[in-house]
Design goal:
The protein has 8 helices and 14 strands. The protein is α+β, with helices and mostly antiparallel strands. The chain folds into 2 domains: 3-158, PUA domain-like (Roll); 181-301, no CATH class. The strands form 4 sheets. Strands 1, 4, 5, 6, 7, 8, 9 and 10 form an 8-stranded mixed sheet that branches. It has a two-stranded antiparallel sheet with strand order 2-3. A two-stranded antiparallel ribbon has the order 11-12.
Amino acid sequence: MDPVSERTLRELIIGWVLERAEANGGFLHREELLGFRHGGERLPLIDFSRGIRNPAAFSATLSIVSSAHGPYDDVESEDGFLHYAYRSGDPFGGDNRKLREAMTTGAPLLFFRKEQPNIYTPVAPVYVVEDYPEERAFVIAFDEAFRYFGDLRDLGEPQRAYARRLAKQRLHQPAFRTRVIHAYTTRCAVCRLHHGSLLDAAHIVPDSHAGAADGLDGAPTVDNGLSLCKIHHSAYDQNMLGISPDYRVQIALDLLAETDGPMLRHGLQEMHGRSLHLPARRGDAPSRERLAWRFEQFRQRA
């Protein structure tokens, strides 16, 4: 395949992946990735058994997968980059050769974070920007600009802060959304809406909360998250809607007293007193301690 055609196909694939993931609620199923078709032919976007996909017709790697329980030491580093371990064997041959070609040409890659069996959070495009032979690892960045910064170990603090912010926005927040929405079987915990593209992962304790005094923090864990449709997420963030530690929905008194159209009546007022839709796994249920802290914020407003 000539370079222009390969680049065009990569961009088409990346667009499809992101669109499909958003429709699902931020993630894709394994069968969707293996069943992708182009021009009437099947073109799997991940490998059937390995963490790297190198289609024969492509000059450079198409996608990589990182799993917390995988056989390789792939590290989401505090520097804001992913350190992706060399594949086994010859460091300059096989899969490593095509990863190095992606670094040379600047080809955009798909990065999939495997949250649990058969569930993948996509991050794209990403770029191979550095090769650390002493670590036997490639450095993956979330912005192509890092290809031109020289040795990434010499970055100034503003560039390091930017890299860390990108990693949070493009990797950690989407991964949190995947884990939460999947735990709630792609339903709003309040109204049970079942459309992934209309669902968010809402923090109970905000990720900005330091928690030094109360011992709570805004960790991106499922028990600190709620799967909420966009209207209920917004209402929750503004303390118009509260959720008590016994998993009951409450609506602020001024909203209950207000007269407006059907959205207020059916979308918010009728939710008052409802029981929360909870995850099937007990360990994924929202933390009662965190809910109590957040419910106090709601009561002060209400």
